Amino acid sequence: MLAMQIQAPGGPDVFQAGEVPLPEPGAGEVRVKIAAVGVNFIDVYGRSGQYKVALPATLGQEAAGTVDALGPGVSDLAVGDRVAYAGVLGAYAAYSVVPAARLVRVPAGVELQQAAAVMLQGMTAHYLSHSTYPLGPGDTALVHAAAGGAGRLLVQLAKARGARVIGTAGNAEKAALAESAGADAVIRYTETAFAPEVRRLTNGRGVDVVYDSVGKDTFAGSLDSLRPRGMLVLYGQSSGAVPPLDPQVLNAKGSLFLTRPTLVHYIATREELLGRADDLFAAMQAGTLDVRIDQTFPLTAAAAAHRYLEARQTKGKVLLLPHG
Asked: Which of 61, 62, 70, 99 has the most crowded Cβ, counting Cβ within 10 A?
């Protein structure tokens, strides 16, 4: 089968297309024929060496497709079932082998490309808004990169929970996308320093929580945007890793909280995985969650997809299509 692999860390050009043996599912596993693969910054971190992966590596941790073969002991799925998953390495390929316990069924009315687009970013937006800092009426959140794949979903889920949402975006087109998702105000950070503008928009108080996927470029301003005892949720580093932080800074800025969560710890049980996925699929079926696919690339164009993502020009989800 076709797979995109890396032999060593580096830039997008390290991807190599090759034929590898079709994997066979073991006990409790399922082989999935992949219809769509989500491209995420965690893939960039693995490719560049920021995150260590065993080499040679087939990247990709998010996909949707159909069950192609069952391993011993799998009885609750059948060949042809539509499924999706996140958090299992190896999705940049025509087929992947996934533990059955990590798969979720894709309901009728949800296209496979749409399902692939929410498994990682959608469940991330879900745990951020429902668990890390559970939003509710009266809360105000700052969402960075509010027009991006995860950011735009997070804006929608935050609004659904009754929060006020301030977003940041880099240009007018992205600002409009964030506003269309329900953001109450959008700051164009290329034109206006966002931290003072957040203070103005909150009458000097600051926001209750900042959801920051950008990292190095926004970290200091994110801390300056919080109310006393507010929380900075750093869940990505698209601009690079943040520098070391003296915890005394959190004290001086108002006894702030800082957390660096990751999805795997918020879908640690099957019940939690199914609960988050089912919530997202139900909202998609009801038409209350708009999942925007920005660009699709053939699997063999993984390098181009990474360049597009790293340019931080995305306006929704980027997908790879292994079968055309």
From this structure: 62
Residue identified by tokens 């969560």 is 261
Q: What is the largest CA-CA distance in the chain?
A: 61
Q: Count other C-beta atoms under 10 Å from residue 269's C-beta.
A: 10
Cα-based distances in Å from 73 to 26, 27, 76, 101, 192 = 9, 6, 9, 12, 57
pLDDT in tens, 30-45: 999 999 999 998 999 9
Residue-wise burial string across 27-44, b where 16 or more C-beta atoms lie within 10 A, e elsewhere: eebbbbbbbbbbbbbbbb
Q: What is the pLDDT of residues 216-228, one digit of tens each?
A: 999 999 999 999 9
The amino acid present at 273, given as its one-letter code, is L
Q: What CATH number has the domain bearing residue 29?
A: 3.90.180.10
| Whole-number Å distance between alpha carbons of 279 and 96 | 25
Residues 250, 299, single domain; the answer is: no
Residues 107-136: tens digit of each pLDDT: 999 999 999 999 999 999 999 999 999 999
- The total of structural domains in the chain comes to 2
Q: Which residues contact 169 (CB under 8 A, 6 or more apart)?
A: 145, 146, 147, 175, 177, 178, 186, 187, 188, 189
Cα–Cα distance measured from residue 45 to residue 24, given in angstroms and rounded to the nearest whole number = 28
| Closest among 306, 291, 322, 262 to 39, alpha carbons compared | 306
d(CA 295, CA 311): 13
